Amino acid sequence: MKMLTLAALAAILAAPVAARADIPGKHPAYLHALTDLRHARAHLEKPARPEVKWDEMRAIHKIDDAINEIKRAAIDDGKDIGDHPPVDEHLDHRGRLHRSLELLRKARRDIEEHEDNGYNNGLRDRAIHHIDGAIDVIKEALHE
């Protein structure tokens, strides 16, 4: 009888863990956005034309701010800022700017979804604001 009770208790305790095993994280889109933001940052970090570093630094600061807002929303994947897909070394300066712009727009789409948690809505909105700022800086750089 004791063994049957212990087995039943073990099954009850294990059920919630097993049920959650296939459920994705609470905010997978935010995690995708973090990857895209890091990747966009990497394209700006090593410019092909060092004399235009100022624009890149403005955009990098805005991207860092967006990353920090997402992390404050408790959506931290624990990865280092340098953990991103490889940068295409064959891209020239304009190509890197265009690729960063593409990644920032993708990250923005990822986090635009409605957030159930009101506190996180503010963090998400600030992250979007920072991403939009980085997009604006890159657009300015492309028009120069």
Question: From the alpha-carbon coordinates, what is the Rg to the nearest angstrom?
Answer: 21 Å
- Alpha-carbon distance between the termini? 80 Å
List the total number of helices.
Answer: 5
Strand percentage lies at under 5%
Mean pLDDT: 75
Low-pLDDT runs of 5+ residues are 15-25
Which fold name is given in CATH as the topology?
Ferritin
CATH class: Mainly Alpha
* Estimated helix fraction: over 70%
Structural class based on helices, strands and sheet pairing? mainly alpha
- Architecture in CATH? Up-down Bundle
Q: Can you count the beta strands?
A: 0
> Overall 3D geometry?
globular
The total number of structural domains is: 1
User: How do the SSEs run, as a string of H and E?
Assistant: HHHHH
Largest sheet: none
How would you characterize the overall build of this protein?
By secondary structure, this protein is an all-alpha fold. The protein has a single domain (26-143), classed as Ferritin. 71% of the residues lie in helices and 0% in strands. The chain has helices at residues 2-20, 28-45, 53-72, 93-111, 118-143. It starts with a helix and ends with a helix. Residues 15-25 have low confidence and may be disordered.
Helix and strand topology:
Elements: H1 2-20, H2 28-45, H3 53-72, H4 93-111, H5 118-143
In short:
By secondary structure, the chain is mainly α. The protein contains five helices and no strands.
